[in-house]
Design brief:
Distance between the termini of chain B: 9 Å
Strand order of the largest sheet of chain A: 2-3-1-4
Helix content of chain B: over 70%
Shape of chain B: globular
Oligomer: heterodimer
Distance between the termini of chain A: 17 Å
Largest sheet of chain A: 4 strands, antiparallel
Strand content of chain B: under 5%
Radius of gyration of chain A: 25 Å
CATH class of the largest domain in chain A: Alpha Beta
Number of strands of chain B: 0
Largest interface: A-B, 13 and 12 residues
Amino acid sequence: MSTKEKSNDRKVYGLLAEYANPAKLMRAAKLSNRAGYKKYDAYSPFPIHGMDDAMGLKNSKLGWIVLSHGLVGFAGGLALQIWTSSIAYPINIGGKPFVNIPAFIPVTFELTILLSAFGAVFGMFFLNNMPKHYNTLFNSDKFARVTDDKFFICVEASDDMFSLEETEKFLRDAGATDVEVIYE
Amino acid sequence: MAKTKLIDSIEFPAEKSPLKAFVAVGAIGILLSLVGLVVNTEQFMYSYLTSFAFFISFALASLFLVMIHHITRSSWGITIRRIPETFSSQLWIYILLFIPILLGMNYLYAWTGDMGDRHPFYADLLDHKSPYLNTAFFIVRNIIYFAVWSFLGYKLYQYSIKMDETGDWGIDNAMRKISAPGILLFGFTVAFASFDWLMSLRFDWFSTMWGVYYFAMSFQALFAFLILIVFYLHSKGLLLNTVTKAHIGDMGGWMFGFTVFYAYIAFSQYFLIYYATIPEETLWFYVRFEDNWSIIAAFILFGRFIIPFIVLLGRPAKSNFKVLKFVTVLILVSHLIEVFWIVMPTLHADFKLHWIDIATFLGFAGIFLGLFFYQFSKNSMIPKNDPKLAESLNKH
């Protein structure tokens, strides 16, 4: 291991493995998933099609967040209009009923969309742990190239299967060109 | 992961073609329709127009899908493109199928005759509208529509076949060059055609949204139809690895999107008329919400918006074959019923199904699907030399 002795008293965050190209990264992600690692992530300069399947990621929960917000918008929009135009301040408009559902639909629709959009944007921030100003992986100098031309997998030490020697061997066998220990 | 090679046979095997069944159904339908023509000409004309407007909507929506595909250089649907291409290549046949409507115009369109003992208001109104609504101009307009559609549909199909044969990728540019002005022409011609065929059934009524309404109906129903055709091909063991769950999921997504679009347009049209409450505008809906027509209207609302919207909302549902089978059939039935609901109240104050309705439907179904499978089996089922084919096959 190429790490310096003085780092030994610091807590290990995880192992960062470097891969040469997307295909190798995809293969390593697939192997990590099959080996049973849970707390690992793949990093690449661009999105790679099929990575979700390779990593065994489930569908995002975002849809449910958006749905719940949308339903609140729908119910709220309808309730707002029913209350204002038939309870709080009923006005006769062209002889139409006070609770005039067709006329309420545009506003109900808009509020459904508005709250759904809020749910989508802020739900996405929430699920991605954003905003996040610091990431332990920034401790690695090599990791800077993840925005350019290198591909990484980081297996976190908090994973139940994590062991410095075994995991490093595993990552190298999966085709890593370099494996580095990341400290907190 | 990569599956960039075609591993299915892309020729439609002759023994699997359902052509004979459709020829038989079509022949029975046409014979019954001819009996209907003699027995009850007026009912026949309305039934015929319903079936005509229903079936041509798929061909027209197909033409739009093919053109938008070329313009946007989409790759997702290359493997299913030959199906809408085949539909739209047959638009010229509707010239022949339109002749009965021209011959029976005076049964369908009140504006072709004199006003008789109707209120003088109608005579004045017709006089006012006569520069547009007259028989000669109607015929000229329809010749223009069919000329545009036939040319676009046939040309794009021929180009696609030519690329199959020669493998010349330059044809891709030629197709795009036709499609861009084609979309513009398509928008105008379809809007005016829907005014002429369906809206002018009552010349005292108008809706400026009618063109986009007919288009929205058609485009939603097209995806339901495409998905069912793909399921049919799969059931015959064809294109199983070429049109995959990913492609079907995309079509499910389009279908969902245009379910919302349809509802948006249909509601907007209703809402404007409802809110303004101008008597001559509300009359059209008044008739269609009377008696048991209101049940039909409610069925349309649930059948092609509320149920498909809720069922298809989740992502997995859009590529779940069982769910899709249910929703596509529901949407197609609702589409047929909606065309019926648009046309028939002009003739009948109450909803009732006449046997001639079924006869013309069977006749058209036989012609439409028979010709489709005839043409579809003549060439390969996918554009095999398309530059974006590999990308489409690799979709997941």
